[in-house]
Amino acid sequence: MKIDGKADSLELFNLKSRHTRVFHLSWFAFFACFFAWFGIAPLMPVIRDEFSLTKDQIGNIMIASVSATVFMRILMGWLCDRIGPRITYSALLVGGSVPVMCIGLSYDYHSFLFFRLLIGAIGGSFVITQYHTSVFYSARCVGTANATSAGWGNLGGGVTQMVMPLVFSLVVAAGVSEFWGWRISMLVVGVFCAVLGAVYYFFTTDTPLGNFKELRALGKIPEKSSASGGFIKAVKDKRVWILFCVYGACFGIELTMNNIAALYFRDYFELGLQEAGIVAGLFGVMNLFARSLGGFVGDRAGSRYGLQGRVVWLGAALLLEGAALIVFSRMVALPAALVCLIFFSLFVQMAEGATFSVVPFVNPGAVGSVAGIVGAGGNAGAVIAGFLFKGGMAWPDALMVLGALALGVGAMSFLLRFPDHAQEPKMMPELGASWLKGG
User: What pairing do the DSSP bridges indicate for beta strands 2-3 and 6-7?
Assistant: First the structure.
């Protein structure tokens, strides 16, 4: 059954369905982008030695890697509302592949910092993924669809921690120097992103009923100019900014962990490059189910208790995340640290899924703008967190501060309020079932 052209369940194996194709291509595109975005992170011990990087310079690189994404996520949301997710995603994949391939041209700290900043733009892919699934799935499962597509995409951050050190080792074992090893690895990742951009363009549509261009020609959706009004309304809604902070306290911290995890376990637990990458990868691999679980619980809470049920679950997940991170930061034995890391990973990713089980209901007429601003909050949080790791504070203490901040934001999240009549999001109320039957 379809609701205004949207599916009310996830059919993962029905590849003839537009909904299923969009779902799988959107999460896989985000996976590739996330892999490209953080593909360099597990190789930082090698790059640190090559460029003789200081702790302060590593902190600057961490901040640069997430800074550009703040702007790009807002831009991507606005573009989705104007020109649709299909063209937006394809352009980002192709354009974003250029700095991924070109980072191999780095010859010192400053050139590496420049390309790391540019690569951060590809992190805007998250907003397009969330927009696309929000348009294709109804309120009955939109939280689960959003969380699963984002979670499987975020899995790229865990897989790259495990795969890139292995790829690097294989390249070096084949007789290539370390100097060229990490450069060749990133070149391959960039080429793959460019190819995927073409695939996305030809095998997806903007909505269940077709592309924006054709639907506008039929007068079925508003003109491009209406997107600006929706963006202004999103900016003025205080709930958007509460969710901005919420996402900074969950996804922002996840991004930070993706950047520091390999170095953290190498420096504080004296693990080798591959071992540190595997341990750090455990954190990201939890996205295979943890974020989906957060969205699923959000949908169930929403079905039973309304939108405020989703809010209560979101607050609870954030509080558990903050507590788990504080405990992890105090661990000095590797086995105990691994257990705490798994628990922290579970809660931080469930909080992310819970966040985007709420987002489609804030301003259904401007879901792209809302998703863009909230998504940017994740990177803003990572930028702020980055400053804790570039100063004189020990990294375990910096993690404890982040845990305390997550607790505070978790308490703030309970301030979210929705009207009693707010129900299923109508991203495109013009796309009614009557036109679907007629077209």
Answer: antiparallel
